[in-house]
Amino acid sequence: MKFVDLAALLHIKRVFLALTLFLSITAATGQPMAKTSDIITILHGHEAQLFQGDQGLFDTLEFTLSDLSFEGLAVTVPEKIQTDTMQELPVILVSQQTVLRGWQVSEQNNLLLALIDLNTGTVRTVPISTDAKAGENSGSQTPGRPPQPNPQAGAALETKIRKVDARPHFAIPWNTGAYSVVAFCYDWASNAARVELMGKEKIDPTFFSVSPRPMESAQYGWIPTSYIPGDKTPPAPQVGVAFHVDPALTNERLVVAAGSFTKKLGANEILPAPETLKDHDTAQEVYAVVPITFMILGLDWKVPRLREMGIPIYRAGAGTDDKAAHGYFWVDVLAQEEAPLTKGRYVLYAFLEGVAYGPEYFDIP
Fold first, then answer.
1. 279, 268 in Cβ contact below 8 A?
2. Distance in angstroms (rounded) separating the CA atoms of residues 22 and 68
3. pTM above 0.85?
4. Among positive and negative, which fits the CA dihedral 189, 149, 55, 142?
5. Dist. CA 161–CA 362, nearest whole Å
6. pLDDT surpasses 70 at 145
């Protein structure tokens, strides 16, 4: 009787899988080039095993991805979860960076996971440890910073795939809901992965109000809060958010962002009855209110600064059933009651419909 070496067969299977994945990426271009969408495609093909925490598969995929010229973050989650049969929200987080990048922007000090409630627009974040591939945070202290790597060592790639159960991290109510998950490492942001929790409960839609309210020049001096496009407002994008930080209006207590956005309006964003606001000394009819959250991150921050806003869409920018609506903003994204920012470089993100837009860099002199 011949005995089959199951370990050897499993090793051969994993090597074959790695070769297949590598060839699938290089076939189109002849080069090992990859985008975030390519990484997500690879993950989607093995989600069942990944969500179970198959460490052998993690190792195989890390080996494969290390041969691709991808640098960045990628996440995937189950599309739907039945809350009565599944008790976790597994997030598969992929990160690949050069050794030099890891020295400059340590994942241990900068890796965050954001959970966005797609009903309320609320954004929450937690730091994610990099010490355990399977997603269990380490309680060890952050070690001292090592010396800067030499050019040859610094060009090498570091690849990590880890599983994180988002449910306990965010204390997610285990009932009906829809969420988006995004990973951050200072000025890197991943794709947005969406999950629907399918429970027996019914969720009522959340309605929004304008916040902050427009301010007249007489109230706020030379920096009015406004939702009318101006000379510094970027054109509305085809979809999503376009914005920049005005360096002339940036200091330790003030960070003014000018921007625009385009989206299909949800039923809960359209006001039951129009509201009139005074903006730039002119009466404006508010047709809808869209939730946008701004996030400021500094290097080695484990807790970002978040500011939720309700941005009005005036009647002039309102869309129709077959045309998306446009909104604009000129706002201070740094809440006035918070401690001032210290000298240094920061990044600003904007969340709309669970997607993170940015980063936009700004400096505090």
1. no
2. 8
3. yes
4. negative
5. 31
6. yes
- For the residues of 179-234, what is the DSSP string, one character each? EEEEEEETTEE---EEEEEE-S---PPP----BSPP--HHHHTT---B-S--TTPP
- The residue among 299, 348, 281, 322 whose CA lies nearest residue 110 is 299
- pLDDT of 255 > 60? The answer is yes
- Checking if the pLDDT of 218 tops 50, the result is no
pLDDT for 217: 47
Strand runs labelled E in the chain:
72-76, 80-82, 90-98, 111-117, 123-127, 157-165, 177-185, 188-189, 193-198, 240-251, 254-263, 270-279, 282-298, 305-314, 325-332, 344-352, 355-364
| Residue for token pair 């597994």 | 90
What distance in Å separates the CA atoms of residue 354 and residue 196, rounded to the nearest whole number? 13
Return the bridge partners of 180, or none: 116, 194
62-71, 120-129, 295-304, 345-354: which range is least confident on average?
62-71
pLDDT in tens, 96-109: 999 999 999 999 99
Q: Which of 209, 316, 191, 332 is nearest to 259 (CA)?
A: 332
β-pairing verdict for 80-82 and 193-198: parallel
